[in-house]
Inverse folding.
């Protein structure tokens, strides 16, 4: 063993149990390799920040180096700047939520909120309920605290509340291990589905009946392309812990998300946050505040909505046109993602290498489940970032890759070597 | 019990073991109340950002809304922007450290680095060695992972390596519970002391002998007011995990710190970071990069050094002039802090209320120890933020408060009711 190896071994043998259990994602590594200019990516969930007018960004930034420089450059409070929290309070009011700035804590993106919620509530073995599939960043954040994650499937009307009730019956009333339910009710990531009002109402009732906290993650709520606004869970019950972010309505490069919660919960999250980062970026908070105060951001948001709607339409049209009859997919009314389900004999992780060779990438479905076992025949495809022409081309390429897989299996089925699904 | 109380109880009964153990600091609450304009604060460690030229901040910010807008507004990699890491690599080279940009990960201030190091290495009961007293934010960050923290006292030459050796003998060689030693070798927080070269060399030897990681936190290294540069631990051994930050040489409002470490350690920290915040602020990283590339930052740094030197001199002079003979204090060659030790019968926490009434605040010493029991007769006083005139006035006020305490005890001693120390 060389000395370099020895050093590596000595440091890694010191790694904590929770981080030892984390594995670098093979998919992530594949994506890193996939920066050839001829590859069309349906993988990431990056907003198209090129739609932001430079004049608005310049205007929002100005305060940080002029009037408010001394604040923007200095440490801030752990909760974040009150003026920026007021902006977030106003943003929530538009959605039907009444929440005072004092009941908000600013986080470094909603991702930090997920980590802090894990840290604040989870001991190893505690139960968390999520949609299955769900946002892989939430799974990563929670898994550091070694919980027992129970997944509830969704359909086009959101989380299957009947299946949730069955799971809750198994868990039992007032089970001290049951901590919270995490949901993305609007244009779910990765599902694209939206929870209908009656299910939202029932979910709140169940949270009181079974005594669990509801964590509502709402990054896409303002990106609705058809249909009417659905009231957030937080508007139905003030007990809900609501996560917001400016990442999809302004820019994720400024790390600014927030948690709106009852003060008892918030004070605990504040305690957890102090040791985590002291405070978020004052600079970013000043820029964000002035973006929403001094620029015509609603007009820019309409541009986002119009652009993403066109891209979603292009994706759904291409799926209808090119995808084989064995595939099914969701039809999102907003957000960034479509969830595709293929026959169970297709493994989308191994198929990714072939897709990459054909010049298209997507996110395999298994990463959206805590065990990495379910979802192997599904994939998330994002329509947020590429042009309608690229989306059409990407879906065509992907359809050809899938078609090749299916042909092989169809031959097996015809020969009686495989049972039709 | 009212319904509001019930809700609070139900949420707090769900709090994790580690956050349940965290207590809101009484001192913090007192500080929050202490924003009367006639109060002079020696409590905080805030750099004086009013010394930064507006033209430099404007120039650094420009890239974020012009040439590099698309990068500044978008998600970045978990490790951070390579161009900004190159700046940090250059900053370390000035100090005598050779470290490639690839061996750096950018964090949200050095505080996030402390949390990530705790997360990456600590299971409950693992041993961490620190100076005692040490930075309270480090204690907060580590304590979330429930370690057994062993404190080694310092003298004017830094950590007492003889006492470290004795502690290591008690811990034993290759003890799997021993994870890392955390030190602030330059102008320690709160001690103000600097570890001399021979102790640094011996510390590195001991780390290899006893198999522990050395975590070197160096926020103040460039703020030296007398004496010559001392080589960082990282320059003596590439195995050291080095934490840097721009908070004290530029601005803490931009959350930009970094970890320089061997790649085996860095890949584990990266895994821990993914779930914690996805990535840091791209916007801040672009601004920081251009501050160090496009502005005369060394000239500004000299202004910081000159200003803080004058303030340190004012503090040491006032201490010599006003403080009673029973008090001792450190004489820092750089950084922000002086550590004052009073006779053991003085409790600086309870004395803080009297100091506040006299219009001066400081940080009581017990917060800088993991158990909150030691350090009760000490205090940290910061000279970074107030003018020399205010520092003189503050020390005069503080001396009067201490004098009043001491008079009482002197009377007890004279009466034979207390033994002289």
């Amino acid at each position: 063993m060389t000395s370099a190896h020895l050093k590596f071994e000595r440091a890694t043998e010191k790694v904590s149990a929770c981080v030892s259990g984390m594995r670098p994602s093979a998919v992530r590594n594949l994506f890193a390799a996939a920066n050839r200019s001829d590859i069309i990516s349906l993988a990431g969930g990056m907003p198209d920040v090129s739609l932001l007018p430079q004049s608005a960004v310049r205007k929002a930034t100005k305060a940080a180096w002029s009037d408010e420089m001394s604040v923007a450059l200095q440490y801030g409070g752990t909760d974040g700047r009150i003026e920026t929290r007021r902006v977030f309070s106003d943003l929530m009011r538009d959605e039907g939520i009444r929440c005072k700035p004092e009941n908000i804590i600013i986080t470094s993106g909603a991702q930090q909120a997920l980590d802090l919620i894990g840290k604040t509530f989870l001991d190893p073995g505690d139960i968390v309920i999520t949609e299955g599939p769900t946002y892989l960043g939430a799974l990563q954040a929670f898994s550091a605290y070694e919980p027992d994650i129970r997944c509830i499937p969704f359909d086009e009307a959101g989380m299957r509340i009947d299946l949730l009730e069955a799971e809750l019956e198994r868990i039992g009333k007032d089970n001290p291990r049951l901590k919270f339910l995490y949901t993305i009710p609007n244009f779910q990531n990765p599902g694209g589905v939206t929870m209908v009002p009656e299910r939202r109402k029932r979910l709140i009732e169940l949270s009181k009946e079974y005594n669990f906290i509801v964590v509502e993650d709402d990054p896409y709520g303002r990106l609705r392309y058809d249909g009417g606004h659905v009231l957030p869970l937080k508007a139905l019950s003030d007990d809900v812990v609501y996560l917001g972010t400016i990442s999809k309505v302004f820019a994720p490069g400024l790390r600014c998300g927030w948690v709106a919660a009852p003060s008892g919960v918030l004070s605990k999250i504040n305690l957890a946050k102090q040791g985590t980062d002291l405070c978020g970026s004052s600079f970013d908070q000043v820029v964000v505040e002035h973006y929403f105060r001094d620029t015509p951001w609603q007009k820019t948001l309409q541009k986002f909505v119009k652009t993403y709607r066109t891209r979603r339409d292009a994706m759904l049209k291409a799926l209808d046109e090119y995808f084989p009859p064995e595939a099914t997919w969701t039809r999102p009314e907003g957000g960034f993602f479509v969830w595709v389900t293929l026959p169970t004999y297709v493994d989308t992780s191994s198929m990714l290498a072939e897709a990459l060779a054909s010049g298209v990438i997507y996110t395999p479905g298994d990463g959206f489940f805590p065990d990495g076992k379910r979802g192997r025949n599904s994939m998330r495809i994002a329509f947020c970032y590429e042009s309608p022409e690229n989306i059409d081309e990407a879906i065509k390429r992907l359809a050809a890759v899938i078609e090749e897989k299916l042909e092989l299996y169809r031959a097996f089925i015809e020969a009686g070597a495989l049972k039709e699904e």
Remarks:
- Residues 388-414 of chain A form the longest helix (27 residues).
- Chain A has two domains: 3-51+299-414, 77-294.
- Residues 127 and 178 of chain A are 5 Å apart (CA to CA).
